[in-house]
Design a protein that fits this description.
It is an enzyme of class 1 (oxidoreductase). By secondary structure, this protein is of the alpha/beta class. It is built from eight helices and seven strands, in the order H-E-H-E-H-E-H-E-H-E-H-E-H-H-E. The structure holds nicotinamide-adenine-dinucleotide (NAD). The site of nicotinamide-adenine-dinucleotide has 28 residues, from helix 2.
Amino acid sequence: MTSALMSPSTSRLTGKCVLVTGATGGIGLAISELLHASGATVYVTDIDQERAESLAGALGERARFVRLDVTEEAGWAAVAAAMEDAGDRLTTLVNCAGAALRRSIADTTLDDFNRIMELNLVGTFLGIRLAARRMVDHGAIVNISSVNGVLPTAGLGAYVASKSAVSALTRVAALELADRGITVNAVCPGSIDTAITDSADFADTDWDAYVRTIPVGRRGAPVEVAQAVLYLASDESRYVTGTDLVIDGGIAAGRFAGRPRSTQ
Ligand SMILES: NC(=O)c1ccc[n+]([C@@H]2O[C@H](COP(=O)([O-])OP(=O)(O)OC[C@H]3O[C@@H](n4cnc5c(N)ncnc54)[C@H](O)[C@@H]3O)[C@@H](O)[C@H]2O)c1
């Protein structure tokens, strides 16, 4: 075990077969690149087939692409069939596809609410279910939740509901799959600079003011989330299951109203 912990980073995931959803988005891309560089075979999946194909091409050997809309049950079955045809056995699933909605509860339509729940929660459920049915023993499931799954923000009702449910479902899956050596964990990013906040919903966000509420003093980079996923996907975390690993620059540590002036 000790030698496995000390193995070089390029071989941390050698022999693993990873499926990443939402793989071409800001965080999904960083995860796909890092896990691939760490030796895994990576199934790059996304609703955007063109981007998935191009990413798999750029990664090269050990990368495959499949178009997957995570909300479609049949799509998950098709990915499983594609893996079987290629002789690949799923060891690791990263449920990363997701979207945000910034809207007060009063202004949220039922369609909007359902759309966010369908993508963030139902898509994750379908992935976990596929893994529970097909994953080899001693596998790993990593669900990308959010700091909003543990610390709600006003104006993100549907998102908060979906992500706290993802974190809860993660714990149930961890309990159910522990005897097979399958770990199930959530990674909860804080504010990471990606296209997720590019929509009109976030257009009036004062990012400078927002950053002042982050104890570390900056937004996170996608690769900082990917590093946490790498740990949870590797054999170094075999005894870690059912956790929310928060990667947020200290947002969830407590209410941050700036630092007191130091006299030292
Ligand atoms: N960026 C942040 O600040 C932040 C913070 C906390 C959590 N997250 C979570 O991280 C994950 C990735 O977010 P991101 O910031 O990279 O966003 P992003 O918008 O850059 O990427 C989202 C990806 O999901 C894909 N996608 C959308 N609908 C899909 C569907 N139905 N099926 C399959 N793929 C679909 C998109 O094509 C895109 O590639 C999401 O689950 C998000 O909630 C992001």
